[in-house]
Recover the amino acids of this structure.
């Protein structure tokens, strides 16, 4: 039963990836002529010809999309214009760093966010709730790169505890992961708080309390298992913000990931790498959402039956 | 027994609206309020601290930036562009999302599938990523920035409006209106829009905050309005490169952004509680 659901959900993956490919294609081709976007004013006619050929711009758009799909199926985005090697390889070399950063940050944000949300809900309208919620809303209002800069100034330049940027051992991961986690953390606090407070009014919770279960017991056995689902759905939505935040965080800390590569490639007009990086980011989001769906089904039998 | 809330909705609306009002007044009356021309350079007075320092340059209350431009004046003028970009892009995305959501909700069938699946596909695409690509394609000026930010967020409204329209269109009074011969336009004006509006206002308010933050993020990546434009994002991004020599530039710009965005968030949360008492828990 469960296996069949997962298989059925997996069968949709190609469709999702097709949509991702379509989105990548649309954004890169239809927001303007790539030749104008990616070649600067001093371009030579030869460069224009080469890129036009490379991107098959002399073909009608539906044909262009089919060619794009065909190359995609082979994992072929073309050769990078600024690095040696294929664009897919260039992106692949940096994928690990991005996944490490994003994974650590997500784990941090979810763990702290859920704990904070529980604290807020349990001590609703008390000092702890007001303090944590206010900090969370303030956190939502803070430009992430400014937070990153302040962290660098304090922990790296004044206290000399951590390196300012780059990558290497785990100490290099602390500040970038903290900055990226801080982007998501407030949302997880607030969503967990809301999910728990909504459940507190449910009949089965009230029944649990009235038959003499302690508050802690009701929280652990009645409320938290049910709150997991809305928090998970929210997590799925947040993967997009995670990857977007990763672009900014990687730029702040010179983290050698796909996000920084993408920005770099845009400024160097490296079309194949931009395409490969965009496709990597979108695919990661699609796969993460699939994982979230499966997890949700595992913890909530109601979804399985639906 | 219900404990009294420390931050009630009135408090949130008053404080949030107040902060927003201050920024709007600063934006409207910028030429009267700003002591200097925000673009006037004075290279003899570069990176001077403000009133808190013994080395302050006379007349420059909050100090000067790397070109000797008056920081207070740049911040005041910056509120213009930040609010303009935030509000205009919100209006654009709200309009697209409202139209798309209502049409999808009322028509159903293939129209709904086309619109909502497209929204889903765009959801899988980080908005910053889309904005980065579009600005790289179109170039950074105020109009493009508004267009890009507007297009990157329409799905948020479309989904909310679609869900609401769908459930409203199945209510007995809407069905009755249809039976009486009310056309789509009539039903939209008379029954759907009045109910969608409060939700839309709440979402839109919270989105203004997101848009203002998005503008600063694009400025940081070098994809915002090109310098010397005085936007808060530009001042913050420029200040960041001199954070260790002249920390007040980035910090004052950052504080301005936090104050405005926090105010808008508070206003949005207050409005949400006002329109939807069921959501009091949030």
């Amino acid at each position: 039963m469960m296996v069949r659901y997962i298989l059925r959900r997996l069968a949709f993956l190609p469709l999702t990836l097709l949509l991702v490919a379509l989105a990548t294609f649309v954004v890169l081709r239809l927001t303007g002529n790539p030749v104008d976007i990616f070649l600067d004013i001093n371009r030579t006619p030869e460069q224009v010809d080469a890129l036009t050929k490379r991107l098959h711009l002399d073909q009608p758009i539906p044909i262009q999309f089919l060619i794009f799909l065909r190359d995609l199926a082979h994992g072929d985005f073309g050769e990078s214009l600024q690095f040696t090697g294929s664009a897919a390889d260039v992106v692949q070399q940096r994928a690990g760093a991005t996944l490490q950063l994003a994974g650590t940050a997500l784990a941090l944000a979810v763990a702290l966010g859920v704990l904070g949300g529980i604290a807020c809900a349990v001590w609703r309208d008390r000092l702890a709730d007001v303090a944590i919620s206010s900090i969370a809303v303030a956190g939502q209002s803070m430009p992430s790169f400014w937070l990153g800069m302040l962290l660098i100034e304090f922990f790296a330049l004044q206290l000399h505890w951590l390196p300012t940027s780059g990558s290497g051992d785990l100490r290099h991961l602390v500040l970038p992961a903290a900055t990226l986690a801080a982007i998501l953390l407030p949302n997880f606090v607030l969503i967990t708080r809301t999910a728990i407070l909504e459940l507190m009014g449910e009949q089965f919770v009230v029944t649990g309390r009235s038959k003499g279960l302690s508050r802690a017991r009701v929280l652990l056995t009645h409320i938290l298992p049910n709150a997991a689902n809305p928090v998970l759905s929210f997590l799925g939505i947040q993967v997009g913000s995670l990857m977007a935040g990763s672009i900014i965080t990687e730029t702040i800390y010179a983290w050698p990931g796909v996000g920084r590569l993408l920005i770099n490639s845009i400024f160097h007009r490296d079309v194949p790498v931009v395409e490969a990086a965009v496709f990597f980011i979108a695919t990661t989001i699609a796969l993460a959402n699939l994982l979230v769906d499966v997890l949700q089904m595992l913890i909530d039998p109601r979804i399985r039956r639906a | 027994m219900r404990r009294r809330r420390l931050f009630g909705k009135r408090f949130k609306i008053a404080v949030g609206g107040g902060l927003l009002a201050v920024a709007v007044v600063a934006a409207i009356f910028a030429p009267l309020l700003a002591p200097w021309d925000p673009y006037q350079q004075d290279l003899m007075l570069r990176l001077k601290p403000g009133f808190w320092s013994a080395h302050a340059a006379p007349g420059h209350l909050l100090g000067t930036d790397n070109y000797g431009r008056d920081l207070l004046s740049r911040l005041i003028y910056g509120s213009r562009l930040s609010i303009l970009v935030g509000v205009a892009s919100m209006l654009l995305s709200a309009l697209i999302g409202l139209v798309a959501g209502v049409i999808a909700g009322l028509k159903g069938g293939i129209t709904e599938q086309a619109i909502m699946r497209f929204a889903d596909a765009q959801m899988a695409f980080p908005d910053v990523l889309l904005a980065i690509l579009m600005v790289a394609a179109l170039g950074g000026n105020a109009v493009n920035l508004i267009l890009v930010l507007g297009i990157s967020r329409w799905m948020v409204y479309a989904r909310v409006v679609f869900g609401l329209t769908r459930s409203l269109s199945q209510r007995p009074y809407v069905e009755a209106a249809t039976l009486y011969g009310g056309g789509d336009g009539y039903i939209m004006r008379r029954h759907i829009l009045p109910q969608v509006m409060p939700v839309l206002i709440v979402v839109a308010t919270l989105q203004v905050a997101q848009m203002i933050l998005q503008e600063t993020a694009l400025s940081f990546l070098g994809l915002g309005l090109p310098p010397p434009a005085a936007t808060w994002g530009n001042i913050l991004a420029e200040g960041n490169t001199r954070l260790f020599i002249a920390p007040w530039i980035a910090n004052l710009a950052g504080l301005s952004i936090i104050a405005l965005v926090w105010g808008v968030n508070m206003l949005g949360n207050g409005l949400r509680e006002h329109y939807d008492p069921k959501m009091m828990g949030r």
